[in-house]
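Title: Comparing notes on inverse folding

I've been comparing how different people in this forum approach sequence design from structure. To keep things fair, I'm posting one structure and asking everyone to reply with a full sequence. Here's the target:
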């Protein structure tokens, strides 16, 4: 284990002997590393067979956290590891794509669409990523897909 990863685990109150387990605050290292854009830690945790289906207290998975961080490296690592790209959180039914579209993360929207995220999924309130698109570029990206039926 690299010293910077050991330090990160220690500084965030995770076990260095069992690094994939949540800390005493109930936070999973995979989600925190994703949220902080720490692709080095994320790769290490994936190599340690961290569960990709874990969620935070809001029902969001690590991919959502990586999108929040606007970290293309973390997003790529999680997608290649097999994270559910279309995971819908339990609170609102939003996916990482819906979150990215509604928060103006244009590069993240492009990256998720290129990786196969489903733009037709809806929140519990019946909104799609297109409905919640917050920039003209995101609106154009998503409306092309809706029109073409992809």
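Reply #1:
Here's my take.
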């Amino acid at each position: 284990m690299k010293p910077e990863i050991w330090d990160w685990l220690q500084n965030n109150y995770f076990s260095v002997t069992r690094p994939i387990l949540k800390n005493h605050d109930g936070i999973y290292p995979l989600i925190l590393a994703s949220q902080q854009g720490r692709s080095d830690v994320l790769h290490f945790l994936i190599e340690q067979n961290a569960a990709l289906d874990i969620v935070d207290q809001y029902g969001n998975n690590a991919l959502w956290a990586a999108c929040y961080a606007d970290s293309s490296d973390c997003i790529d690592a999680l997608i290649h590891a097999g994270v559910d790209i279309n995971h819908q959180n339990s609170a609102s039914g939003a996916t990482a794509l819906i979150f990215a579209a509604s928060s103006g993360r244009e590069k993240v929207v492009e990256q998720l669409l290129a990786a196969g995220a489903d733009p037709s999924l809806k929140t519990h309130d019946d909104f799609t990523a297109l409905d919640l698109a917050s920039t003209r570029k995101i609106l154009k990206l998503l409306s092309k897909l809706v029109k073409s039926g992809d």
